[in-house]
Amino acid sequence: MRFDFSLPLFVPFFSGPFSFNLGTKRKTLQDVANVMGALYASVLFLGVNNASSVQPVVAIERTSFYRERAAGMYHVLPYAIAQGLIEIPYILVQTLVYGTITYAMINFEWDAGKYFYYMVCMFLTFTYFTFYGMVAVGLSPSQQLAAVISSAFYSVWNLFSGFLIPFPKMPRWWSWYYYVCPVGWTLHGLVGSQLGNVNTLLMVPGGQTTTVAQYIRTTYGFVHEDLTLCLGVLAIFAVGFWFAYAFALKFLNHQRR
Questions:
Q1: Which DSSP helix (H) or strand (E) runs through 211?
Q2: What is the pTM of this model?
Q3: Are 193 and 117 spatial neighbours (Cβ–Cβ below 8 Å)?
Q4: CA torsion sign, 192 to 178 to 138 to 6?
Q5: Distance CA 1, CA 90 (A)
Q6: Res 199: pLDDT
Q7: Tell me, what's the pLDDT at 79?
Q8: Mean pLDDT score, 170-185
Q9: Which residues contact 152 (CB under 8 A, 6 or more apart)?
Q10: At what angle do helices 182-195 and 227-251 cross, to 10 degrees?
Q11: Domain coordinates of the chain in residue numbers?
């Protein structure tokens, strides 16, 4: 378990001047893109940090697990469950600190439903990133190799998250990866919850007008009606990575004799 809360406190105040009060600015396409960019950066940076920081801890503890399992003291499933559960309080506090600071600095609507959804979505996101870091170590013989493999996945998740390349503009033979990209579902939920029901008028190229909600629906595919689905998918990713870690502990042995 990790007790370093410096990043949840440091990152928002470092990036605060760049995202301060963006949540209330929704009159132009650039304003909407800025809000989405603030959400995108908030999620990806701390999520990747969670996955990276948990890997050395899991790699060190795995050596002890092999020894105790050989002695008949540890069983795989209870150990995997305990190792996952011990991360939950850290992630919860991290979400409360980081999520509240970023929500206030970006100045989203102080609506109870939107705030609660934002926090739950952040919590599930940090959870699946943390469990993914554990899976990467469980499937790799060393923490160094796990870090290299993870960096490749971060790049692909970043590319297919639906922000750099909006889903409607993805080639059909690539678009399937959007559905198995957890970051894409995070952005779908966050952007859909904060902007998916905003009816502020926007001027789009061609001299036409549309609403913020309609713009993000047609341009990015983020819709307000999918909010519950997004939380369900994020929970599936978190539980799936958790079980994948237990599977790796049970059937893979990287112990060097």
A1: strand 208-211
A2: 0.89
A3: yes
A4: negative
A5: 8
A6: 85
A7: 85
A8: 89
A9: none
A10: 160
A11: 20-251
